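Narrative of accomplishments. A recurring question from our advisory board has been how the design workflow behaves on a single, concrete structure rather than in aggregate. To address it, we present the structure tokens for one chain from the evaluation set, followed by the sequence designed for it. No filtering or post-editing was applied between the two.
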């Protein structure tokens, strides 16, 4: 495949998760610039589709994993009699690999050998170029470049409307909108990746002292609701609790209004990046150079590298890229003082 190849019908396969589909949007929009006449179809997960619905120029086909075998049959039925010029198979999970089998395409582009796993190689016939120590977003960039998109700085035009922004603004209230908003999005998908509630509370109090209004965001899961309640219980600062009160597009608009976001390894950190809001990322289990907030990796506070060396005796460069470290209490190694110091640095550098 060369840059002179013309594509009229392109399929994207990336089912999950929220952060990853945010990374993929920048690649898709770069592809649209390189191939403005091409039709783009994106096979995506149900929850992720709620965030990206109405993305300009993209047709979404929802793959609902809860439907089991029926989800694969629906894919086959949807694409019956159709053949894409190219499938960009951007996910190595077995579920996605099996979905790729249901998508007819002349060419199926997948990851390079080093990133292929869960039988990924059996479902592709072309590969993106190998990359050394790449961020997840750069992997997706490799797919865009494989079909002729020139190198690009990631940009996003996210599908939010004035109505979504008005709904978010109504939740925030006029008083907060008049000042600087500090959003804490405290919950990752696994409890062990969350910082301690009393330490989130300490940052809430510090931010309030610096003149910020503090908002906590999150989804309606018991873990997220409980964590928000614990943070508020430890804080003497006024905190607006929006956990479970926003749809994904409204959450994106809340993050857009924020001056600064604090989050662990979780989707909203990457959502904030797409709307240009600086993020302080808290990382212990995964390498932030691979999964951190892409445009704000210099603002990460991490204990990943020291734990990796303690557990393996090696550095990230000496191990398979993306090697995780294990431990239920690693996030406790991130001190309040370190995060406050980063808070001050970001406020100064971004002139917040």
């Amino acid at each position: 495949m060369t840059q002179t190849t013309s594509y009229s019908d392109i399929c994207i396969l990336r089912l999950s998760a929220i952060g990853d589909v945010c990374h993929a949007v920048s690649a898709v929009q770069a592809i649209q610039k390189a191939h403005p006449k091409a039709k783009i179809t994106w096979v995506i997960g149900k929850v992720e589709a709620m965030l990206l619905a109405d993305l300009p120029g993209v047709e979404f086909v929802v793959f609902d994993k809860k439907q089991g075998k029926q989800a694969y049959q629906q894919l086959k039925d949807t694409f019956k009699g159709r053949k894409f010029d190219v499938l960009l198979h951007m996910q190595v999970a077995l579920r996605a690999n099996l979905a790729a089998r249901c998508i007819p395409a002349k060419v199926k582009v997948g990851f390079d050998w080093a990133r292929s796993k869960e039988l990924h190689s059996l479902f592709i016939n072309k590969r993106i170029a190998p990359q050394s120590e790449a961020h997840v977003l750069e992997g997706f960039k490799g797919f865009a470049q494989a079909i002729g998109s020139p190198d690009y700085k990631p940009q996003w035009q996210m599908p939010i409307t004035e109505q979504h922004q008005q709904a978010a603004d109504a939740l925030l209230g006029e008083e907060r909108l008049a000042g600087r908003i500090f959003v804490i999005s405290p919950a990752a998908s696994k409890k062990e990746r969350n910082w301690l509630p009393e330490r989130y509370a300490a940052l809430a109090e510090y931010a309030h002292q610096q003149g910020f209004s503090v908002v906590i965001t999150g989804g309606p899961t018991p873990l997220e609701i409980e964590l928000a309640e614990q943070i508020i219980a430890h804080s003497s600062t006024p905190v607006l609790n929006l956990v479970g009160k926003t749809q994904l597009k409204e959450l994106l608009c809340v993050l857009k209004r924020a001056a600064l976001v604090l989050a662990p390894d979780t989707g909203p950190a990457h959502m904030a990046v797409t709307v240009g809001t600086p993020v302080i990322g808290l990382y212990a289990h995964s390498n932030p150079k691979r999964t951190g907030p892409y445009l704000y990796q210099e603002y990460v506070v991490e204990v990943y590298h020291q734990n990796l060396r303690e557990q393996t005796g090696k550095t990230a460069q000496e191990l398979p890229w993306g090697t995780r470290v294990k431990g239920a209490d690693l996030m406790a190694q991130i001190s309040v003082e370190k995060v406050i110091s980063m808070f001050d640095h970001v406020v100064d550098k971004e002139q917040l």
